[in-house]
């Protein structure tokens, strides 16, 4: 008798649950809005021929355009065409393999893609991000992957909390060994996120290490801006006479890295490189502390005071005059393994790069200089990182 009661109870409970679920499904269906055209398509679609189709649903907009950086032949923006269903579209390309930033400019207001979760930060805004596969050195491949971490720290020199990104190679979290450390600096307008998002640094290192083309290393990507980036009266960057980032790097970032991460000591196990503004930071840090860095890389940059009319030229003593003691110290040259420059032949800092290389050679430095095609873009900087990282920490 008891079994029968229990059986009836279970059956009744099951019926109630089915009824509740059915009612819930009907209520959800009634309350669920009808899908809009923008809910049913991929907003940034890479086609087999390498072109990219961009779409955004903005039925009330009177004008929509695609904005971006580094996308070849796009310019500042490209007008999009409105379809009858309120979707706006445009096609760009073919686009070379790589990652690219973009926004939609709707009625004059720049906005990220509402249906693309991939983003890349810069100094003052966020971009949407799309990737065109086809370059094996930076694609996400079936290889062991390292980790890129957002690391917050208290900067005593700046008296505030700061952030940097740190790449640790595959197996770092399981091992006990120590690694060389590579400090990788970004350019003006960007931030510490840039090298690992649009710059693909983590994937580039993963692939190089998997192919045994690069030594496993820790890569530190700090934030080079310490305040708002402004333009001076002459059109160049307006910066304080003493850049506060240099103190943050020397007094806060390096001690934190060497105390928290398993990095090898000694000059031969430290490298530094940067692009554009980060290249200038690299020169300032590297040649002020040549006893601490054996590997130096400068991408699309140089000492701004070397060229008349150069972007951001300083008043007063030149870079060469300020660093003459290090430039003319033969003891510092002995342990220096590599000074490597690369710039595109369409880059606006091309002459600055050439003049800086000539100046360093005049002081007896064996500088390696590469001139590629292209301009001041991530298309070049990712390739420069790929080449430079293969040279590091090898005999």
List keywords for this structure.
Rossmann fold, Immunoglobulin-like, single chain, 395 residues, globular, six-stranded antiparallel beta sheet, alpha+beta, 9 helices
Structure description:
The chain has 395 residues and is an alpha+beta fold. It has 2 domains: 37-132, Immunoglobulins (Immunoglobulin-like, Sandwich); 147-391, Alpha/Beta hydrolase fold, catalytic domain (Rossmann fold, 3-Layer(aba) Sandwich), CATH 3.40.50. 27% of the residues lie in helices and 26% in strands. The chain has 9 helices and 20 strands. It has helices at residues 2-31, 201-210, 244-260, 277-286, 319-322, 324-327, 330-334, 350-362, 378-391; strands at residues 44-46, 52-57, 64-69, 77-79, 81-82, 87-92, 98-106, 109-111, 119-121, 126-132, 147-155, 160-168, 181-185, 218-222, 230-231, 237-238, 270-275, 295-299, 338-344, 367-372. The radius of gyration is 26 Å and the shape is globular.
Structure class: alpha+beta
CATH topology of the largest domain, by name, is Rossmann fold
* Largest beta sheet: strand ordering: 11-12-14-13-17-18-19-20
Backbone CA Rg = 26 Å
CATH homologous superfamily designation of the largest domain: Alpha/Beta hydrolase fold, catalytic domain
CATH architecture of the largest domain: 3-Layer(aba) Sandwich
Query: How many domain units?
Result: 2
Residues in helices, as a percent range: 25-40%
